[in-house]
Amino acid sequence: MSVAAPTRVASLRGAKLVCIFFLVYFVADTGLNLFAFSAGWTILWPLNGVTIALLICRPKSEWPAMLLGIGLGMGLGEFLDANALGSVIWQRIFSLIEVALSAWFLPKFTVLEDWLRKPQIFVRFVCALVVGPLVSGVMAAVYFHLTTHQAFLSALDDWATADSLGIAAIMPLALSFRSPEMRGLFRRKTAWRTLMVLGVAFASAAIVFSVSQYPLLFLLYPTLLLVDSMLGFSGSALAVAVISFISVYLTTHAMGPFGRWPAGLPVTRDVAFQLFLGFHLVALFPASIMILERRRMAAELLDSNAQLLLLASLDGLTGIANRRALDERFSQEWSRAIRVGTPLALVMIDIDHFKQFNDIYGHHAGDRCLQAVATALQAKTQRGQDHLSRFGGEEFALLLPHTDLQGAIHIAENLRLAVLDLAIPHRAGADGQVTISLGCAALKPVNGEEESRLLEAADAALYQAKSAGRNRVHGADPDHRIVPMRA
User: Fold this and answer.
1) What's the pLDDT at 479?
2) Which of 73, 94, 210, 466 could covalently link to 22 via disulfide, CB atoms 3.0 to 4.6 Å apart?
3) How many Å is the maximal CA-CA distance in the chain?
4) pLDDT of residue 486
């Protein structure tokens, strides 16, 4: 491949990005300018928030092509809306400077939850809201003051404050659309809850910004916090964007507490409304992060507790269940057997001459022997309902729900053969290798009967197996009557 080939591919990719963003932003700008409350765009301009979200989702190497396409698309839309070409060009330059500056302050976006946990994310978010709009707003205010003689502060407010509010209201929503959390809100099982909570929030906002004779503005922030606590950051971002549009629409149509603003006040209606809405939007962001962090910490705590419970139920040496876990499982299966009326069996297992094994080969070899035996026993415990545990020392126990005595003896014999197959050398053992003795018992428990009855019967069978010469299986009924051994 020639050196020019990668350059040609990059150029084609850049041209494609320019075309895509040109078309998208031309349609978006034209639609916004024709929208029913276009007068409200001097209060809140939403498109730059979307632009910044798109920029931080893409590599910076693609920013020039994206910005060129965005500038051309919005420029054409503004020009067709009867704006002078020179004014359009300058405004597009100011706007591109703004979104590039704001995006530069923010970390690259990958996953919403990770992005919100970036270091100093709130400070960087505030910088994106302030620095970009302020720099471009000063440039635009100077330009409009010189060309149209508009008051500097009025032009600055129309540009910078509206863009800043638009970024605060729309950028989190644009990022949330890439989050699984947003898709989860509208799954079949959760959509009704999401729609109900959002419906309450939108209705509350409509009441707050349509009623002027009663002071209801204090209801807005609790409403936003309620949505955030019930639907998470993505639901909150959606609610914020829609409520912002509702409030702008009602205010520009002379409704609500800001709609009929008295003349002669030092602060104009738009400025007062922007201050109120801006405070809520900026204050909600850290609250959302705190709620998200609290949920994450609660989930991590649950995971940690589950891991601790798991560790507490495992034998540290062999990795199988320990005596504590056996006691809990024994109680559960005993109650279930009484309720269902099925037999419950217990197999007690003891490694033969294990003390001599430790004396001859050392405790490290003894530990390895215990691990090997536990692994062999576990491999033969094939039913998910069966429960193998280390009872203590060189003893193991196997709990067998829905199993009668003959079934337990059959399983125990397989366990005995599995340990023989290990062929672990043992000078003091039968045939010069490690063996096990097993005692089995089974019964159908009834109300009022003690669990210890089954354990005592299995212990008695194990004692008989060891007394009869070890390396064998004995069974016992609940009255400790020994079933003929199987060796």
Assistant:
1) 63
2) 73
3) 111
4) 47
pLDDT of residue 1: 46
Contact assessment for residue 106 and residue 125, using Cβ atoms and an 8 Å cutoff: yes
Per-residue model confidence as pLDDT tens digits over 103-157: 999 999 988 888 888 888 889 999 999 999 999 999 999 999 999 888 898 888 8
Q: Cα(21)–Cα(7) distance, rounded to whole angstroms?
A: 21
pLDDT in tens, 412-470: 999 999 999 999 999 988 778 999 999 999 999 988 888 889 999 999 999 999 999 89
Q: What is the pTM of this model?
A: 0.66
Using alpha carbons, select from 247, 45, 17 the residue that is nearest to residue 132.
45
Distance CA 383, CA 414 (A): 14
The domains located in the chain, with CATH, are 4-304 (no CATH), 323-486 (3.30.70.270)
